[in-house]
Amino acid sequence: MLIGIDLGTTNSAVAVWRDGAAELVDNALGNPLTPSAVSVDASGQSWVGQAALDRMATQPGQTATSFKRYIGTEHTTALGSKKAKWRAEDLSAMVLRALVDDVEAALGERPSAAVITVPAYFNDKQRKATRRAGELAGLEVRRLINEPTAAALAFGLQDRGDREPFLVFDLGGGTFDVSIVEMFDGIVEVRASAGDNRLGGDDFNTALIKLARPMLGSEAERALQHLPADKREALLTIAAEKCRRALSDQGLATFAVTLDGQPFSAEVSAEEFETACAPLIARLREPVVRAMRDCGVSSEDLSDIVLVGGATRMPVVKKAITRMFGRFPNANVHPDHAVALGAASMAGLLDSGVGLEEIRISDVAPFTMGVNVAERDQTGRIHDGLFSPIIQRNTPVPVSREHSYGTMHANQPSVQMGIYQGEARLVRDNVLLGQIDIPVPKGPAGIEVRVRFTYDSSGLLEVDAFVPESGLQKNLVIADDDDRKDQARFEQRRAELAKLKVHPRDEAENVALMARAERMYESFSGQVRDYIGQMILNFQAVIDAQEPRAIAEARERFAQALDELEGSSPL
Amino acid sequence: MSAPRFPWDVLGIAPTDDRKAVRSAYAERLKAIDPDQDIAGYSRLRDARDEALWLIREGQATGAHAAPSESDLNDWFAGGGDAPGAGEAQPDAAAEPVPPPDNKPADDKPGRFIELLFPGHEFTPEPLTREEYEAGADLMRGIMADAQAATVDRQGGIEDWLAHYLASSWPRSGPLVEDAVAAFGWDRDTGRIDEHAAVAFLNARLNALAFLRQLDQPDHEWHAAYVELRKPGPRSRLPWKGADIRRITDLLVFIRENYPELEEYLDGPRVASYTQPDEVENPWKWVGITVVVLIFVARFMASMASDTPPGSTPPLPDYYAAAQPVWTTEQKQDLLDELFGPGVDYGALAHDAPDLYASIGRLGAIDITQDQFRDDAYGMAHNSLRLAILRAAAHAPFEELVAIRQYELDLLRWVRAQGNSQDCRDIGRWLSYPQEIDRDADFTAQERVLARRLLDAGLLEPDETPSPTQASIPGEVVQAMMNALGVDRARFDVIAAGNGSVSDSCNFRIALLEEMLRRPGNMPPELLRLR
After folding, report:
1. With contacts defined as CB-CB under 8 Å, which chain B residues touch A425?
2. Residues A50-59: b if buried by 16+ CB within 10 A, e if exposed
3. Distance CA B203, CA B187 (A)
4. Which one of A299, A301, A387, A402 makes the best mutation probe of the B interface by having the most chain B beta carbons within 10 Å?
5. Residue B130 near chain A (CB below 8 Å)
6. Span B239-251, mean pLDDT?
7. Which of A465, A479, B63, B349 is least surrounded by Cβ atoms within 10 Å, i.e. has the fewest?
8. Final residue of a structural domain among B56, B72, B91
């Protein structure tokens, strides 16, 4: 069985293709969305999802969130026993495994293969790391598809009609993607893609913290300084998240933290927040302009603006979008579910196309690829380290392009070319994918070297070099060295993940409730705090008695009591 | 219009105005192939589809969807009405700036802005007076406010327009540039391959000014050197006066590498007395530096005018375009008559020379009712034609090849006679031709004949044949060239490798062409086709 997974920065979701439609699968808590959060304590006990997210407040040193930002890099987080350092792909693997468990519980069959989504703007390293995360979770990653393409599929398959170019505006927790997609006669064609890997809902939280923190007062500031850094970050982020959600519905909201049992709060108005977010809103514009320019579509030509990602619920973002395009965005797609549903549709297509007439997806190269060159300017000086594009971004894929270069000096023995990906003019600001060394025959400067790049629809880049003078041909396929070199390390990591203790599924709700209660314990003070503490002890006693019905009843009452205290549901 | 057409054959349908038919044909063809196995085929199919759609578009006016009316937007923000996505409606009627539908504004801000920067539509390096600066800043604020309120691509268009005019009127626009860069955040985009030429230019100028301010600080390591170089007159020969030579050299090298225009802030004779201490003081050196600056500015403007990628003189967004944004058929025909002589129509050009057709099509948004823009547009069209002619040498048959080389020789001689060795060397590489050549009636008449001949022979169509990049020159030609240039063998080799001076390279190419054309039949073919 092939499933579709949206592995998001803030939330993840899984869906399957069944009976001619894509369907989300709920987790053990009955929710289709599972927070992308992982917590591991010193004994090796692990939490994934909402429980882990709640533990962020109480045990920030053991919890990790928003790790998608680090995927594809060497960044590690130390969780659990201090020796264990986890990379973002390991943490993602834990989330993926939890999702696989959910599907098994719901459908009775354990899926072995998946389609996973990635931001369209993810570079090569990030994509390969996502693939590894899937493999660590025991999944064969049949395909990686771009998130906006998945959303476009979900949007477009609703009524099977032809669609003029529409724009997918995907603002998630950590990344921003824009895609312009056209659908007709069973073809889903991506005309252009652009984005910002470092812009998402989390940045809006940061802006809110910057605005509200000074408003809490000097006493609060002193208390904050005394806290360890991770705890401080965690508390402020949780407060910001809550406040930001509230501002989506009301004009005024509270930013509240509890420090040393003392509550501190400040009132933030929607206007103040909008002003604080202005630079972020300005950054939204650039990828949109770039995508529209690259495919020559103007705002009048667009038939719809499709919003994806929780952050698009913010009024400040909605206003900016309306102003950008001179029209209202489309609301027929659930911003949190579209990507997972689209991934499941893709899975359905791949799995022998059951229930779907033939659909072809044409995508584009999301970034420019080229080599480094040197150029002589008019004064005769040589500038080195310049980027010479061979495949421009947003070229339809698969694509093959060739460029001719000449040797710089007489009697040069070889040409060493680095293969880069990115948009900067100097190669040092781009991502290095590989290197190729091309021997050339002796002769005066200007010996021709022809370089051909072939980029296929699975994202594999092949480089062919040809020297006409000597007839020499060289070939390089940009593959992932990491995997081949570290097969042993891969197995070791998989073993380590398997060693972690996972809560049995039937305990999931209890575990989540406990984590939530502990978080609330810390965020309240005085009598209410004592009251929560008492309830925690009582609940623990009921669990220890191991009477299922009593446990279920106690859980109900406990959850209700917490709901009343919190004033709204936790999600 | 004539018979078989490139896009329609590949798509397998008859020529049509129906976009749906084109897309259906494309879809059918695409499903029948596996693009990964047949990359070239997929590429051809895709290009055919794009070309067909573009042809349809050129044949009819594009209809724009109306922007939502003012009342719709205000209602939405006021929380009233059944707007989609409701539930997040704001309670207050926001004083939200609403994008004006395509009205011509009563107050012609852009026109006045251009008038301010180019008084009498002429370029002048005169700085703005205080009142002019304030008026300009005011206009710019108004323009930027319009940009903020407009849809995103119109906003981009207005930004490009502003960048272009600020850059081409620099240094007069100097004080306004800082405000614009700050407001639009252009300094954020530095270092990207698609960075707008005008923005890059402005950023570099601002960096130069920032550097100058740093130099003014007494604690800067080159401050003393800077002060020394600003003193008038050649340096004193007395040993205890004058600053640290090493610092002065470092400063000069840095300025010349990064911000050459700053050299005009230094005193010419003094700089000269440091860089060439043994020569007699030459007052003309100072003139030389000013000339460098003006050439620098002129080169930028020339390169901007002749950038092949679209967006060089950016098309003015609707809001700012003249009443006649698209050329009339007569105007288009006039241009074709100018380029090819009478009797060539647009449709034929689309079929026989699609690249050229596309380049000329992109000029369509320039308002040619104004003379300066008309000259620019015609200049660009000529440039495109010249490039197409020179490119045709790669695959033209012998007779036409000789004609093209003769044409190139005449062109180079003409440019050299104007005293411009730089352009002479660069022809074929850049597209920078002095515009005066377009006014030489004899030359353009001859050019027209050749262009028409090549067009009729179908040689202006793009071809996959690459030009040779290397060829060997026969001995007697080498000898004849050495005589004509007056150089020895060693020097000849240096120039041939591309390491000679600008005028050397120019003369070399002219001499080579002259020798080749004496007996073209005896020349190796790669040599004739060499660019």
Report:
1. 191-193, 195
2. bbbbbbbbbb
3. 6
4. A299
5. no
6. 72
7. B63
8. B56
Question: The complex's ipTM?
Answer: 0.77
A353 shares a domain with A237 = no
The reply to whether A37 falls in a domain is: yes
Nearest residue of B to residue A456, measured between CA atoms: B36
**Looking at the domain assignment, is residue A64 inside a domain?**
yes
The reply to whether residue A429 touches residue B191, judged by beta carbons under 8 angstroms, is yes
Q: How many CB atoms lie within 10 A of CB B31?
A: 14
Identify the residue among A169, A298, A407 best suited for mutation to test binding to B, counting B beta carbons within 10 A and taking the highest.
Answer: A298
Q: Does A245 share its domain with A357?
A: no
For A138-202, what is the HEC assignment?
A: CCEEEEEEEHHHHHHHHHHCCCCCCEEEEEEEEECCCCEEEEEEEEECCEEEEEEEEEECCCCHH
Instruction: State which residues form the domain around B431.
Output: 322-456
Residues B405 and B480 both lie in one domain: no
Residue B16 lies in a domain: yes
Closest chain A C-alpha to B320 CA, distance in angstroms: 17
A245 plus A314 within the same structural domain: yes
**How distant is the Cα of A123 from the closest Cα of chain B, in angstroms?**
17
- Nearest neighbour of A326 by CB, restricted to B40, B68, B466: B68
Same domain, B370 and B448: yes
Q: Which of A316, A344, A362 is the last residue of a domain?
A: A362
Distance in Å, alpha carbon of A192 to nearest chain B alpha carbon: 14
The region of weakest confidence among B4-8, B98-102, B245-249, B386-390 is B98-102
Q: Are residues B497 and B408 in the same domain?
A: no
Which of A91-105, B104-118, B203-217, B322-336 has the highest average model confidence (pLDDT)?
Answer: A91-105
Residues B341 and B432 in one domain: yes
What one-character DSSP code corresponds to residue A330?
B
Is some CB atom of chain A closer than 8 A to the CB atom of B217?
no
How many domains is chain B built from? 3
Q: Which residues contact A508 (CB under 8 A, 6 or more apart)?
A: A27, A28, A29, A51
* Cβ proximity of A536 and A518 under 8 Å: yes
> For residue A168, what are the domain limits?
162-332
pLDDT tens for chain A, 571 residues: list them. 889 999 999 999 999 988 878 999 999 999 999 999 999 988 888 999 999 999 988 888 899 999 999 998 888 888 877 777 889 999 999 999 999 999 999 999 999 999 999 998 888 788 889 999 999 999 999 889 899 889 988 887 766 667 788 999 999 888 899 999 988 888 889 999 998 888 999 999 999 999 999 998 888 888 888 888 888 888 899 899 989 989 988 889 999 888 887 888 899 999 999 999 988 998 898 889 888 888 888 888 888 899 999 899 899 999 889 888 888 888 778 899 999 999 998 888 877 655 456 778 888 988 899 999 988 765 666 778 889 999 999 999 999 999 999 888 888 888 889 999 988 888 888 888 889 999 988 888 888 899 999 998 777 889 999 998 888 898 988 865 555 556 777 888 888 888 888 888 888 889 999 999 998 888 787 888 888 999 999 998 888 888 888 888 999 999 999 888 877 433 3
141-170 of B, contacting A, C-beta below 8 A: 149, 151-156
Assess whether B418 and B498 both reside in one domain. Answer: no
Q: Which residues contact B24 (CB under 8 A, 6 or more apart)?
A: A184, A185
Q: Which residue of B has its CA nearest to A405?
A: B469
Q: Is residue A400 part of a domain?
A: yes
- The per-residue b/e assignment along A141-153, b for 16 or more CB within 10 angstroms, e otherwise, is bbbbbbbbbbbbb
Contacts of B36 (CB under 8 A, 6+ apart): A398, A456, A457, A458
**Same domain for B389 and B514?**
no
